[in-house]
Specification:
The strands form two sheets. A four-stranded mixed sheet has the order 3-4-6-5, with helices on one face. The radius of gyration is 29 Å and the shape is rod-shaped. It folds into two domains: 49 residues, Translation initiation factor 3 (IF-3), N-terminal domain (Ubiquitin-like (UB roll), Roll); 86 residues, Translation Initiation Factor IF3 (2-Layer Sandwich). 37% of the residues lie in helices and 27% in strands. The protein is built from four helices and six strands, in the order αββαβαβαββ. The relative contact order is 0.11. It is an alpha+beta fold.
């Protein structure tokens, strides 16, 4: 192919190199495994620059999903729960993953069943915006649950 994209046909390597040098361009091998190999006459520096710009643009347009964390305590009022649920729903609608953490301090560890009730209520109230991704996980004094937006959720296996 020449610089305008027109097919030149089967040409010897020396002839192709001469054609490229006459136009002040480079002979670039596009498909080396083809028989005969396919080459193109182009400005290789300009091509590399444009390719780099395309990759930067694609990288800029990608949005990285963030994990937002919302923390609860065992001694929390109903209004505070509602406020935090509203924040969770906002994060899920914005397309973020949400980590719900319930922290137990001191003797609150004895009331783990109450903590699980609070967590299950929060999950149930937020199910219209998202889906529980990972089952409730407990590590010491912390209890976790992960929710993802409904659009990104995968169907549960039965």
């Amino acid at each position: 192919m020449d610089e305008t994209g027109n097919q030149v046909g089967i040409v010897s390597t020396l002839t192709a190199l001469k054609m490229a040098q006459e136009k002040g361009l480079d002979l670039v091998e596009v498909s080396p495994n083809a028989r005969p190999p396919v080459c193109k006459i182009m400005d290789y520096g300009k091509y590399k620059y444009q390719e780099k710009k395309r990759q930067q643009e694609a990288k800029k347009n990608r949005s990285a999903q963030q994990v937002k964390e919302v923390k609860f305590r065992l001694k929390i009022d109903t209004h505070d729960i509602e406020t935090k649920e509203k924040a969770i729903k906002g994060f899920l609608q914005a397309g973020h993953k949400v980590k719900i953490t319930l922290q137990l301090r001191g003797r609150e560890v004895l009331f783990r069943d109450r903590a699980m009730d609070i967590l299950q209520k929060v999950i149930a109230d937020c199910e219209d915006s998202g889906v529980l991704e990972r089952v409730v996980d407990s590590r010491g004094r912390l209890i976790f649950a992960y929710m993802v937006p409904k659009s990104q959720s995968k169907p549960q296996k039965k």
